[in-house]
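Summary of Year 1 activities. Much of the first year was spent building the evaluation harness for sequence design. The harness presents a backbone, in tokenized form, and records the residue chosen at every position. We chose the following record to illustrate the format because it has been used consistently in internal testing since the harness was completed.
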């Protein structure tokens, strides 16, 4: 591994808050039975492996050994042997590194603390979908035709709400419809997909439902529905206007999605408007449905960075 890469490794390690690291190690007692190689050295070894493109434990041990003069900069006293790394990979609980990751992530973005608490409360993996147009100059990128005199590409992203990180992203031509990309994706059973009304395609929504995936989106204003049942609204919840079980009555939409759906109307204080939410989840409270749709701001913030 080159001196430049060792320097890069040092810079990455400098971003790890050592107080958080030490507390996490202490909490997991991961330095017990460490066979002389502590958790920090183990972490350095694994990051070294990623940066150097090592293909085996032998490569990791040999690579770190060759960086002997830089070990102090990495915060380790001696290079771990191949057998030590192998032993620790097998016996040290990976949970310590998982917890460290999320603690560091929350430390850099405090809003993730409440986000993760809410995700745990739902007990379902939540995915937030959205896309954004990236304008390009047609004189420089003549292949990126979007409109008559404008060029653009489109970035499609799916965020894991729990971690705040993208689980999927792709770039398409600017004209590609969001639903076409959505139909190419597979979500795990029991997960929740949150998307705006650009993704309302009843063939796709029916496919999600048939595979055990829940969705929360916005109902289009031109949708034809019939109210089957009205649910009582919890007292004191001034933002929820109505909560109803409905069925689609449009000739084509009723064939595409023949099962009943749920419609929750809420007042959006941020934009001073009433919005109508659509979901196939019948047991959550109306407040939960509303909060899930509100979580879309996470992906919009991500795409605006």
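For this record, the design step produced the sequence shown next.
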């Amino acid at each position: 591994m080159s001196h430049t890469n060792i320097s890069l490794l040092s810079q990455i390690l400098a971003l790890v808050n050592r107080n958080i690291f030490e507390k996490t190690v202490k909490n997991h007692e991961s330095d017990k039975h460490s066979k002389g190689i502590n958790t920090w050295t183990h972490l350095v070894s694994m990051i070294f492996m990623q940066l150097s493109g090592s293909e085996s434990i032998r490569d990791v041990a040999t690579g770190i050994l060759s960086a002997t003069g830089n070990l102090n900069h990495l915060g380790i006293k001696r290079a771990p042997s191949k057998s030590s790394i192998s032993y620790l990979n097998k016996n040290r609980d990976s949970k310590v590194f998982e917890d460290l990751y999320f603690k560091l992530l929350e430390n850099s973005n405090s809003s993730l603390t409440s986000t993760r608490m809410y995700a745990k409360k739902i007990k379902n993996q939540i995915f937030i979908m959205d896309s954004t147009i990236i304008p390009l100059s047609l004189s420089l990128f003549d292949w990126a035709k979007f409109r008559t005199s404008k060029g653009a590409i489109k970035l499609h992203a799916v965020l894991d709400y729990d971690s705040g990180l993208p689980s999927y992203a792709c770039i398409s031509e600017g004209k590609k419809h969001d639903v076409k990309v959505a139909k190419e994706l597979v979500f795990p059973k029991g997960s929740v997909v949150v998307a705006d009304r650009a993704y309302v395609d009843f063939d796709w929504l029916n496919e999600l439902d048939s595979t055990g995936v829940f969705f929360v989106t916005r109902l289009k204003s031109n949708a034809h529905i019939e109210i089957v049942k009205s649910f009582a609204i919890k007292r004191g919840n001034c933002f929820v206007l109505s909560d109803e079980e409905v069925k689609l009555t449009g000739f084509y939409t009723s064939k595409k999605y023949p099962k009943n759906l749920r419609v929750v109307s809420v007042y959006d204080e941020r934009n001073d408007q009433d919005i109508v939410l659509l979901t196939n989840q019948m047991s959550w409270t109306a407040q939960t449905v509303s909060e899930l749709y509100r979580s879309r701001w996470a992906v919009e913030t991500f795409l605006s960075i």
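The two ends are 33 Å apart (CA to CA). Quantitative recovery figures across the full test set are reported in Table 2.
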